[in-house]
């Protein structure tokens, strides 16, 4: 998969790459993950065990391109890892390394506007003032950032009208719970709806709520006691649902869906925990959209259909404007933390090359030790990147 994940895909020419072409007969990108797995497994339940991971991209395995069978491979081959302290611990560690390299990180300073000289991005205006920079790296949700921070007339390929016509991933209904008591239950419990195909059809095509929804419960305290006070648990319940759509009014559905999930997790072995809840935060697709600035609340960004992947996704060196680079789920390779870190590696390499800074950013983690900090003398650039990297309090929910 390296040729796929590590190439910038700045145009169709990048598809005609010998390493990639050699892989095509194996990868069969035109097939869905489920169709691809049918070659190996007749039993639908076994296929399910190898394909539900496409939900990590917010996609149905019946539509998700077979390239993403890599997700189940990674999971079964290398295992699932939990950073002690939660995912935010990864961001804190990256911030520590960045500061050591000379980066100044500005927190609680949302970018309100990207500044342009003609078609070139030359800085940002935040609630604290303007920062003039050599380049701008955008990590905020792609479609929302374009709509809010880049004037429509400056864009050619990704205008507001075109963004509205794109396909978007599903969203999630979340319950973050602080509960009195501990549970002798696994770290991960995934409940697949009895009618899985119907549940996925409801999410992706009909945009309605299913009677029997799939859901995931994370009982991370069994692995990481730092997440809750002694004798308590931090549970995280996620149900994949449609992105924001007029068919679902979350002001009406929120309470009903919450109750339904409490019933479901009781059946999953947690019992009636509602009375033991000491802290609760519910997030609906409408909240992802309005409070967390995610276009249509599509938490996994633009859908990962073949017509929105590789060079057809917004490019890491953003094609509509000069001096602007993208990282995150909205650019190549796509959504989910492992590939998002790849997008950061690709974009950093392009950016440093464009600025004429000698770079030795490794292609694979195994070569990480050769990483140099040749860019540490460019604080203005990296300040902007960091402030848009989500290293602010709102992101650590
Ligand atoms: C509930 C849930 C569970 C998930 N679980 C997993 C998992 O287990 N494993 C996995 O690999 N992936 C998982 N994902 C997917 C993964 O979290 C996302 O794909 C990833 O976080 C997206 O990264 P990003 O950098 O594109 O955007 P984000 O992580 O959303 O980062 C964008 C940041 O930009 C900030 N921002 C937005 N606007 C501005 C502005 N104007 N100024 C400054 N900052 C701004 C935001 O506050 C945010 O912090 C999950 C997603 C969800 C929603």
The end-to-end span amounts to 32 Å
Radius of gyration: 21 Å
Low-confidence stretches: 365-397
**CATH topology of the largest domain, which one?**
FAD/NAD(P)-binding domain
Question: What assembly state would you assign to the polypeptide chains in this entry?
Answer: single chain
Q: Which structural class fits the helix and strand makeup?
A: alpha+beta
pLDDT averaged residue by residue: 86
Described by the principal axes of the CA atoms, the overall outline is globular
Number of helices: 13
Q: Tally of extended strands?
A: 10
Small molecules in complex:
flavin-adenine dinucleotide
CATH class of the largest domain: Alpha Beta
Helix % is 25-40%
Biggest sheet strand line-up: 6-7-8-5-9
Task: Let me know the largest β-sheet.
Answer: 5 strands, antiparallel
**Tally of individual domains:** 3
Taken as a percent bin, the fraction of beta residues is 15-25%
* Proper CATH architecture of the largest domain: 3-Layer(bba) Sandwich
Keywords:
397 residues; alpha+beta; Guanine Nucleotide Dissociation Inhibitor, domain 1; FAD/NAD(P)-binding domain; 5-stranded antiparallel beta sheet; 10 strands; globular; disordered C terminus; binds flavin-adenine dinucleotide
